[in-house]
Write a structure and sequence with these properties.
about 210 residues, mainly beta, 5-stranded mixed beta barrel
Length: about 210
């Protein structure tokens, strides 16, 4: 039997160990060394620059962390490449993925003018699309479209995006029927291949940005 003081000391030791473990978990863009703890496989999918031992994910190289909280993936990119990570205020370019009536997921591939080494998940909610009322995300963008957006929040370590600016929005839209590039005609988008008409929230330089 353990005495009360021994049980108390054991509990305090466990609490200290848990605190140290939590502090060892890495955040986005942090510099890490080989063997640094990044998380556990119950929480993240290990990606490039990492390895797993006993269910714990560690850094395999010297680099910076890229933690995609939306897709629950963790990577480490070599320091000499420089880990480009979206931050609040960053203007990003990405491709629209899964779409719902009030939000879409965006696969971010570029931050500013710099191409990312990997991909990062972001979310665009209907309330952050435009200054005017939007009834459905179908009027804004559709899966496959390339968009430019601004990171306005990192709540819960997820990039929340906005297109509420003339310079932000769809850069290239694709027909939801045949996949052909859409042509902008006043306030609508026309497919030159099948004639389908759709709507988008486009950027002021639609069709001109190099992606």
């Amino acid at each position: 039997m353990y005495s009360f003081s021994e049980r108390l000391n054991s509990l305090m030791l466990n609490q200290r160990e848990n605190a140290m473990t939590q502090k060892s978990e890495q955040r986005n863009g942090n510099l890490v060394l080989p063997g640094d703890r990044l998380g556990v496989i119950e929480e993240f999918i290990p990606d490039s620059g990492t390895y797993v031992r006993d269910g714990v994910i560690y850094s395999k190289i010297i680099g910076r962390t890229l933690m995609d909280m939306l897709n629950r993936r963790v990577s480490v990119y070599p320091l000499n490449e420089g880990a480009i990570v979206p931050k609040v205020g960053s203007v990003v370019v990405g491709q629209v993925g899964n779409a719902q009536s009030d939000n879409v997921l965006v696969r971010i591939s570029r931050v500013g003018k710099k191409q990312m080494s990997g991909f990062f998940g972001g979310i665009l909610h209907i309330s952050d699309v435009s200054d005017r009322y939007i009834d459905s995300m179908n009027e804004v963008c559709k899966p496959g479209d390339i968009i430019r957006a601004k990171v306005i929040s990192e709540k819960n370590q997820i990039c929340h995006l906005s297109t509420a600016d003339r310079k932000l929005g769809v850069l290239y839209g694709f027909c939801s029927l045949c996949g052909n590039l859409l042509e902008q005609v006043k306030h609508e988008m026309r497919c030159t291949k099948c004639g389908n008409m759709e709507r988008r929230k486009t950027s002021v330089d639609y069709g001109k940005e190099k992606v």
